[in-house]
Here is the input.
Amino acid sequence: MANTSDISRGMIIKLDGSLYSVVEFGENKTARAAAKVWAKLKGVDNSRSIEKTWNSGDTIYPVRVERKTFQFLYKDESGYNFMDTETFEQIAMQETLVDSPQFLKDGQEVSVLINTESDQPMRVELPDKIVLLVTYSEPGLRGDTATRTLKQATVETGASVNVPLFVNEGELIRVNTKTGEYVERVKE
Here is the structure.
């Protein structure tokens, strides 16, 4: 059995029949009352985000989750299709269970979180940062590096990313998949 002192960022816990990932947590101590533990939780099997408070020492129910490497194959009416890189087994996941689906490109490796109790895939996570090719961008002007002005660029997956003025069509850029923001230009 686990209690509130075992909470850590990224842990997946079962709460009211649903699974939640701990995004942030902390402890509130007051002079008169018992300490309370709070956590911001993001739904793993649903799209809800909630905050939960427990008394210090309360029991929590962590779920053991395995992370497996899968490869993105294609998207069709059944959802996003992925293949296990070890067993070549294929699974289809709904768009709501894929983090940042707009940045998925064919053949890309992703992590699939699998509930070890039921062997069910729960969520697909992309790497934190990925390299993408800029397929369309308005031409930039030389010397436009002093200001932090941004422009729209379309990347190879069809997603739009705000990039600095000096980024041009045909260049590779690194994008943060969690925020959708431009990180840096990549040299080939």
Remarks:
- DSSP finds no helices and 16 strands in the chain.
- The chain has three domains: 2-62, 66-125, 129-186.
